[in-house]
Specification:
This protein is an alpha+beta fold and about 160 residues long. The protein has three helices and eight strands.
């Protein structure tokens, strides 16, 4: 008779109950919650990280317009250039606003949506050989708090 009594005590202990009334989380629940938190953290971080695409893009637009003015100067044997006024770039021919529109624009001006520009020489003009003059010209494009600078090489007019 002692055996059935000890069996009853053993079966009523919390360690014996495999499916009933256990407290805590299973490993699957813990892992699934951690995976969901990881996905949520990745989404939040990716939306708040500045990739720098805006400042790089605006810098490349400014370089493209400078190259366009340089090409027009070499093709027409007159001085062409770009003047900077805050966030507006203007194509100029012989110091006056040109009648030729900038590539992709409706007229000779381009307004930067997210930034501003500045240069050590304003306006930057190119002669019939594509040279901006005897001194290097530094152009700075600022988007938000990030600034990108590049130098137009004297003599050759190379724009990196």
């Amino acid at each position: 008779m002692l055996w059935p009594l000890s069996n009853r005590i053993f079966r009523s202990s919390p360690a014996y109950r495999p499916y009933g009334n256990r407290r805590g989380f299973t490993l699957i629940e813990i892992v699934s919650v951690l995976v969901l938190l990881g996905i949520l953290a990745a989404v939040v971080v990716s939306r708040n990280v500045d990739t720098g695409a805006d400042d790089i893009g605006e810098t490349e637009v400014v370089k493209g317009f400078l190259r366009f003015a340089q090409m027009k100067a070499m093709n027409n044997s007159t001085t062409w250039g770009i003047s900077f006024a805050g966030n507006v770039l203007t194509l100029q021919q012989n110091g006056a606003t040109g009648t030729v529109q900038l590539p992709g624009q409706a007229d000779a001006t381009y307004t930067m949506a997210k930034g501003s520009t500045g240069a050590t020489v304003n306006p930057i003009t190119f002669d019939e050989w594509g040279s901006p003059g005897a001194v290097p010209i530094t152009v700075t494009v600022t988007v938000g708090t990030v600034s990108k600078a590049f130098t137009v090489t004297q003599g050759t007019g190379f724009i990196p």
